[in-house]
Amino acid sequence: MEFLTRNTANPNSLLKKSNLIKQRALELGFGSCGIAKAEFLEEEAKHLESWLHKGMHGKMSYMENHFDMRLDPRLLVDGAKSVVSLTYNYFPEKIQENHSYKIAKYAYGTDYHFVVKDKLKELLNFIQEEIGEVNGRAFVDSAPILEHAWAKKSGIGWVGKNSLTLSKQKGSFFFLAELILDLDLEYDSPIQTDHCGSCTKCIDSCPTEAILPNKTVDGSKCISYFTIELKEEIPSEMSGKFGDWIFGCDVCQDVCPWNRFSLPHREEKFNPNEELLNYSKSEWEDITEDVFRKIFAKSPVKRTKFEGIKRNIDFIKPN
């Protein structure tokens, strides 16, 4: 990975600090680590404003909050100089039975918010111990931050047509995480080439036509939105379009050619409950609240609550 010197401090010292952080990140299990300058995301500002104006966030009103913070990490951490972006693989070795209701692969195991956040805190502690007095914050899909934009700026990957970060070596089945630091570091070069080329498999395969041709996802049409975010009844016009998905959706990732390079993760906490993998549709339909709580005690699936899963199942099961 190439480095760009954009700081007036000693470049050798910056490079040494950056390499120290990256080495420790890999030791902690992160798949990739890239660093970008903490600055205002001018290009993304226009896109975000347009996306919100068109109502593509649906009922996710929280997306309208903290507009400036989403675009400027210096508003999240005083004196921020660097954004460290990291990936953490979640691609499973085993997947659910074909003839069952499906949940997104990222939700198979323990909630990633806790698993990855703990790793990030370890990395931040390491930085503070090895480099000195550094102020910073750790983020795992838990604050107003445009993680895909920062992943691109830090050289981790490019933004695919399904709006996800893609890597030639690793595909897209990974979580993104960030450390925002008030520390000058050596910045990586963004990936300039869009390696999606003329491929439109994700666009063509989206069951609800939520993926638009300009690298934009209409969140108000996404299956993940309907099955996780929406707390109201699912609109009747979506009937018959969800396939077997009852929590999230992996269609655009499953069809992506770059995900043929995805390798199984090594995170024990992401291993699924065996009951989950072998559940039949009838078992899903008869699931009780006690069983739901047992199987998904530490899973992201509990976010929908028992009533949400039952609603989703009732919406797609044959009458």
Which descriptors apply to this entry?
single chain, 319 residues, alpha+beta, four-stranded antiparallel beta sheet, two-stranded antiparallel ribbon, 12 helices, 33% helix, 13% strand, disordered N terminus, Epoxyqueuosine reductase, metal ion binding
Please trace the helix and strand order, writing H or E for each element.
EHEHHEEHEHEEEEHEEHEHHHHH
Bulk shape? globular
Percentage of residues assigned to helices: 25-40%
Rg for CA atoms: 20 Å
Which residue ranges are poorly predicted, with pLDDT under 50 across at least 5 consecutive positions? 1-8
Rounded mean pLDDT score? 93
Largest sheet: 4 strands, antiparallel
Strand order of the largest sheet: 2-3-8-5
What class do helices, strands and sheet pairing give? Answer: alpha+beta
Percent in strands = 5-15%
What is the tally of beta strands?
12
Count of helical stretches: 12
Number of domain units: 1
Keywords: 4Fe-4S, Cobalamin, Cobalt, Cytoplasm, Iron, Iron-sulfur, Metal-binding, Oxidoreductase, Queuosine biosynthesis, tRNA processing
Active site: 141 (proton donor)
Pathway: tRNA modification; tRNA-queuosine biosynthesis
Main location: cytoplasm
Reconstruct the topology from this structure.
Layout: E1 3-4, H1 11-27, E2 32-37, H2 42-53, H3 67-71, E3 82-89, E4 102-103, H4 112-130, E5 136-139, H5 147-153, E6 158-159, E7 165-166, E8 174-181, E9 187-188, H6 201-205, E10 211-212, E11 216-217, H7 223-229, E12 245-247, H8 251-254, H9 274-278, H10 281-285, H11 289-295, H12 305-316
Parallel strand pairs: 4-12
Antiparallel strand pairs: 1-9, 2-3, 3-8, 5-8, 6-7, 10-11
